[in-house]
């Protein structure tokens, strides 16, 4: 029983560490879009994921599993604007398809409103822990989704 408690504690600590690192990378990547660096370098979605997002993540992250969505948001009220990213009960964010092939990538232009969403499916946790934390699956395995978002307006670069 003691060993199980230690493993559970280590698993939760690992999830918190990964979430914090994802938050950090998201804020740094959002800044690169906001100040026009990504637009001026004409990064594709893969370039942005590999050269910008993954460069801020520790080696424990598999860059191929990092899912990045960047969308331009129009001004609006419910159900438009940023409300489009909420689930129907407005209790959480909509989970997009867990594939980089179906991810959206539009970094916008000067003055546009942007929404950056980065997801990392954590599949290497014990299945008991993953089942307790989430009901998502990724590549056929139960996964906890570490998710970080940023909403911002591009600067006049």
Structural description of this entry:
This is Pilus assembly protein. The chain has 157 residues and is of the alpha+beta class. It has one domain. It has helices at 2-34, 37-41, 45-53, 127-133, and strands spanning 67-73, 113-122, 136-138, 141-153. A four-stranded antiparallel β-sheet has the order 1-2-4-3. A hairpin with a 2-residue loop joins strand 3 and strand 4. The radius of gyration is 17 Å and the shape is globular. The N and C termini lie far apart (58 Å).
Order of helices and strands: HHHEEHEE
> Structural class of the helix and strand makeup?
alpha+beta
Give the overall form.
globular
Number of strands: 4
The fraction of residues in strands falls at 15-25%
Look at the structure and give the mean pLDDT.
88
Number of helices: 4
Strand neighbour order, sheet with most strands: 1-2-4-3
Summarize the SSE layout with pairings.
Layout: H1 2-34, H2 37-41, H3 45-53, E1 67-73, E2 113-122, H4 127-133, E3 136-138, E4 141-153
Protein name: Pilus assembly protein
What's this, in brief?
The chain is of the alpha+beta class. It has four helices and four strands, in the order αααββαββ. The model has no long low-confidence stretch (mean pLDDT 88).
Features:
157 residues, alpha+beta, four-stranded antiparallel β-sheet, 4 helices, globular, Pilus assembly protein
């Amino acid at each position: 029983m003691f060993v199980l408690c230690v493993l559970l504690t280590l698993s939760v600590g690992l999830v918190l560490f990964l979430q914090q690192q994802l938050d950090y990378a998201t804020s740094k990547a959002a800044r690169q879009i906001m100040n026009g660096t990504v637009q001026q370098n004409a990064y594709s979605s893969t370039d942005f994921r590999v050269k910008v997002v993954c460069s801020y993540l520790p080696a424990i992250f598999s860059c191929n599993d990092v899912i990045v969505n960047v969308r331009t948001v129009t001004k609006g009220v419910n159900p438009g604007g940023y409300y489009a990213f909420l689930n129907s009960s407005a209790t959480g964010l909509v989970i997009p398809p867990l594939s980089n092939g179906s991810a959206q990538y539009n970094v916008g232009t000067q003055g546009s409103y942007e929404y950056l969403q980065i997801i990392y499916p954590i599949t290497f946790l014990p299945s008991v822990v993953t089942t307790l934390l989430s009901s998502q699956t990724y590549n056929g395995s139960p996964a906890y989704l570490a998710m970080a978002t940023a909403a911002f307006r591009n600067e006049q670069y």
